[in-house]
Amino acid sequence: MIWTLEPARWLMVATLGLLYALLCWRAYLPLRRKRQQARQARAAAQAAGWIVAHASQTGNAEQLAQQTAATLQLAGIGVHVLELSELDAATLQSAERALFIVSTYGEGDAPDAAAGFVARVMGAAIPLQQLHFGVLALGDSSYRQYCGFGRALDGWLQQQGAQPLFPRIEVDRMAAAALAAWRQQLSHLVGTSDAPDWSAPAFEAWTLQRRECVNRGSAGAPLYRLELLPQQGALPDWQSGDLVQIAAPAEPERPREYSIASIPQDGSLHLLVRLHSHADGSHGVASGWLTQQVQAGQSIALRVRMHRRFRLEDNQARPLILIGNGSGIAGLRAHLKARALAGQTRNWLLFGERNAAYDTQYGAELAQWQAQGVLAQLDRVYSRDQAERRYVQHVLAEQMQRLREWVDDGAAIYVCGSLEGMAAGVHAALQAGLGAPALEALQAAGRYRRDVY
Predict the structure, then answer these.
(1) What is 137-186 written as a DSSP string?
(2) Backbone phi, psi, residue 81, to 5°
(3) Average pLDDT over the chain, rounded to whole?
(4) Between the chain's N and C termini, which has fewer beta carbons within 10 Å?
(5) pLDDT reported for residue 193
(6) Distance between CA atoms of 125 and 348, rounded to whole angstroms?
(7) CA 272, CA 221: separation in Å to the nearest integer?
(8) Among candidates 136, 123, 132, which has minimal Cα distance to 88?
(9) What do you get for the CA distance between the two ends of the chain, in Å?
(10) Does position 341 have pLDDT exceeding 50, yes or no?
């Protein structure tokens, strides 16, 4: 058969059309699964009678939601637990009782686990006169918009006609008294005081093995690497992405959280702690104690906490795009170490700091991973090394075509570091390059995860 130019063109157009259709279908699958999950959630909520919806950034709200559900179930009440982004308007309108346990991060922002709900549901007027609800709002009073998202959710529900079962309960840094008030309200609702144990794991004594400043001369605040070991027993079996909570002696009731920079196979627990200084020259309670006061050989009260939203989980076999800045290299380094141990080599790190001469945390290790093929691509940007400031989001925008190719190949995106500036800029760059619907689909599928602070 002799092909003319015209049939060849038609064949090329048909082939390109088929490829485009396949790409569209691949992008649509997560949204299709999310809609199926929403229908299942609606059916489960109707059958159960009670909804317990959580929106967590680091896992506290999710843990409290599970404990709340256990209390209801102990009293024989059917309950359906789900992430807030899985809750749609129809499910809300079919429910008569709902408990919302939500955190706030940054200056009043909704956590990532609530982004879909805010976009799809809270932007509209929905009659909810049949709904009776309670809100447990988690927050940090050191921020201006304390419990901002919890307050916004509570206000929106009442505007739709929903009736509060009791006044909103606000929790400052997981304060025990506020959590006790929530448990008391639950006891009134279910008619039982025989609630499950809600106490968090006890802090354990760890020993500071060594500490060193890793960025002397930098334009940024001092950054210290710490290595710790438990005083008794073996290392706990944490995963990359997990956190520690540390109780400083001056404020043991307000533990601070830090990303773990190592994996158990390293033989010790590593942290990167930035020394925080206030306007009056005083230091942060926890960062000042950890970097300036406690000495090698002394004891630190610490507990490891699972951070499910930043673990690798279903993304272990996927290509991984790691994006961060500053002390955020800690959580990203742990993921890279876990990937190297598992023999996963499709890893791309985009990382920003201030000065190449002083801010090369783990530089030798990253170079070694590049030489070994563990890091397929490494992009580092230093904001102060040129007249015009350059940040991670600028490099990301320049590399967007490659990033799309990685995402089309199934990659997951993990972001770790500062909320102000970096995380917001990266999110905007991803929205511009991938499109808001595609980014929401990645988030719904667990392929876009953030640990930002």
Answers:
(1) EEE-TTSSSTTHHHHHHHHHHHHTT-EESS--EEEETT-HHHHHHHHHHH
(2) -100, 130
(3) 90
(4) N
(5) 62
(6) 43
(7) 12
(8) 123
(9) 65
(10) yes
pTM score: 0.84
- Phi, psi of 58, rounded to the nearest 5 degrees: -120, 5
Burial of 257 per CB tally in 10 Å (0-12, 13-18, 19+): middle
> Which secondary structure element, helix H or strand E, spans residue 348, and what is its range?
strand 347-353
Q: Report in angstroms the alpha-carbon separations of 20 from 13, 230, 349.
A: 10, 54, 28
Distance CA(432)–CA(200), nearest Å, equals: 41
d(CA 361, CA 339): 19
**Cβ of 398: how many Cβ atoms within 10 Å?**
14
40-44, 124-128, 134-138: least confidently modelled range = 40-44
Task: Count the neighbouring beta carbons within 10 Å of the beta carbon of residue 368.
Answer: 13
Task: Please give the single-letter amino acid code of residue 320.
Answer: L
| Cα 377 from Cα 6, distance rounded (Å) | 42
Find all residues with CB under 8 Å of 88, minimum gap 6, and list them: 38, 41, 42, 120, 121
Q: What tokens were used for 242?
A: 């997990």
- 8 A C-beta contact, residue 430 and residue 439: yes
Q: Which DSSP symbol is given to 292?
A: I
Q: Report the 10 Å Cβ neighbour count for 1.
A: 3
Residue 50 pairs in a beta bridge with 79, 97
CB 329 within 8 A of CB 272: yes
Please state, in angstroms and rounded to a whole number, the distance separating the CA atoms of residues 227 and 247. Answer: 16
Radius of gyration of the chain (CA): 24
**Identity (one letter) of the amino acid at 42?**
R
Token pair 């992430």: residue: 83
Amino acid at 71: T
